[in-house]
């Protein structure tokens, strides 16, 4: 974390909990904040570990399980994204996009307008626009992935509930 601060890297700051929040939620937020910066290892591959199927990466020394908090901060990162999605959207819209617009407006207004623009400036602007579009597409993909994960979690919970109820009867 010190390296992030020393190098002036700005990261998303998780809002503090309200005093009336649930204690379990407060603890979850404390754990997420303590895990920053996240160390995430992920894979789509399924492996058999001690008789159970787990998602993870296979290495010569064993399997790094994606869903195991001892192996990866993936679960904490996913939890952060799910619980703070609306705030992330608002910060993106109100801070990042507005800063970008302000820079573009003040940058164009402060510099005298040249009638002929150089080819290099056009390329830089088009590259910036392309990068911005790629980032927006990446954000949409992440939102879709989170929605899929939430749906999978709901389905798994339903399966677990059905299996628990079925075994009790």
Automatic annotation (TrEMBL):
UniProt-recorded name of the protein: Septin-1-like isoform X2
Region (Disordered): 149-169
Pfam families membership: Septin
Signal peptide: none
InterPro entries membership: G_SEPTIN_dom, P-loop_NTPase
Domain Septin-type G: from-to ranges: 1-107
Highest taxon of source: Eukaryota
Coiled-coil segments: none
Annotated source species: Dinothrombium tinctorium
GO molecular function annotations of the record: GTP binding
């Amino acid at each position: 974390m010190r390296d992030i601060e020393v190098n002036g890297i700005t990261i998303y700051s998780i809002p503090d909990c309200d005093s009336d929040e649930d204690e379990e939620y407060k603890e979850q937020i404390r754990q997420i904040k303590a895990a920053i910066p996240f160390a995430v290892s992920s894979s789509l591959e399924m492996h058999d570990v001690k008789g159970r199927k787990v998602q993870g990466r296979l290495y010569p020394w064993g399997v790094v399980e994606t869903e195991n908090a001892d192996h990866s901060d993936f679960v904490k990162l996913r939890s952060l994204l799910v619980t703070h999605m609306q705030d992330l959207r608002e910060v993106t819209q109100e801070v990042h996009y507005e800063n970008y617009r302000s820079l573009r407006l003040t940058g164009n207004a402060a510099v005298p307008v040249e009638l002929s623009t150089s080819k290099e400036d056009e390329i830089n602007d088009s590259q910036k626009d392309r990068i911005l579009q790629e980032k927006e597409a990446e954000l949409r993909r992440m939102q879709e992935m989170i929605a899929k994960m939430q749906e999978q979690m709901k389905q798994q919970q339903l399966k677990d509930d059905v299996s628990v109820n079925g075994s009790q009867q």
